[in-house]
Amino acid sequence: MPRPSPGNSSTSSPNARKGSRESAKHTADEAFASQPEQIFEDAHRSLSPEQAGRRRLTGAFLIDIDRIEADPQQPRKKIDPTYLNELSSSVKRLGILQPITVRFVDESQKYRIIAGECRYTAAKAAGLREIPCWVKTPKGEQILLEQIVENWQRSNLQPFELADSLAQLRDSNGLTQRQLSREVGKSEGEVSKLLALLDLAPDVQQLARDNPSGRITKRHLYPLLRLDAKQQLRIAHRILEQDLTVGDMERLIESFLVVKEPATRRGAPVTRRKYTSKNGSVLLTFRKQDVTDDDCLAVLKDAIAQIKEQVGEPSDFM
Q: Where in the chain is the domain with CATH 3.90.1530.30?
């Protein structure tokens, strides 16, 4: 029996001329209409275990490093040199394992970093010519938010870098403290304590900002708010010079604290100053409002002289 020609096939349209556009369209419609479910079932079954349950993401590119620029408004102002050297060595061996996040800027015709400036800087130091990037198009107010959250999650922002960024995000968007904490995903108490760092004496803030070692931590800074500006600066210097722990510093702060009691009808104002050591504490009480360090030293000198007199030793203190 002779094989039927396409013109005699049952899939051809009875009114379509052989070789015409109508004939080809009718044939294609017939082919794709037959058992479409079976086609997709076969395709699904053909996926290997490593391909199943995944889908391709868009927006990831290898971009020439010369076409990438840092963000001048980036919350982080300084990078710890030791950390950067370690990261650069890792990049030389393994490359950039996690893409940085960038956005295209029309004015400069470059990709500006949203998150990942440390990785970008390390890649430049390692001599990489291109790095993997996620390209995003965020709104203006979302850029700073992403930078804060990304850096906060990595815990590599200095306290004042974080405080400055939170204040900028709050002020530029008119956020309440509760709204701000919700935006960054942190507790209202933690946000409040960080913003309070901006109330420290300007000299103390500058000392902490200029020190990239991280020896003045948030836990060091919070208790300083209990002191006046002069005392804050004295203890901040001692933190760096003596490498004080938080516990050491808190004991030192107790010695600086002055408790002033209001004047009563019969007596003068009372001012108390307490000094604490590992073995005990000394509380000095003055019958006046303003007390200086020299006043405290004079009282302590007299007290030591009295103690030595009681035990029969010469009073040669100071």
A: 60-139
Helices (H) and strands (E) in the chain, counts: 13, 8
- Give first-to-last CA distance, the chain, whole Å: 128
Burial state string for 258-286 with b = 16 or more CB within 10 A and e = fewer than 16 = beeeeeeeeeeebbebebbeeeeeeebeb
Looking at residue 7, its amino acid is: G
71-116 pLDDT, tens per residue?
888 777 777 788 788 889 999 988 988 899 999 999 999 999 988 8
Query: Degrees (nearest 5) of the Cα angle 55, 58, 63?
Result: 135
Whether 270 and 260 have beta carbons less than 8 Å apart is answered as yes
CATH of domain 60-139: 3.90.1530.30
Encode pLDDT of 119-132 as tens digits. Answer: 999 999 999 999 99
In this prediction, residue 111 carries a pLDDT of 95
List, for residues 226-272, the tens digit of each pLDDT value. 888 888 998 999 898 888 888 888 888 877 775 545 555 555 677 88
> How does residue 6 score in pLDDT terms, banded at 50, 70 and 90?
very low
pLDDT value of residue 130 = 94
Q: Residues with catalytic annotation?
A: 117
Secondary structure (3-state) at 79 = coil
Give Cα 279 to chain centroid, integer Å.
39
Distance CA 262, CA 75 (A): 45
Q: Which residues contact 99 (CB under 8 A, 6 or more apart)?
A: 60, 116, 131, 132, 133, 134
Give the Å distances, CA to CA, from 63 to 47, 57, 114. Answer: 31, 17, 15
Which DSSP helix (H) or strand (E) runs through 33?
A: helix 21-33
> E strands along the chain, which residues?
60-64, 68-69, 100-105, 110-115, 130-135, 258-261, 270-276, 281-286
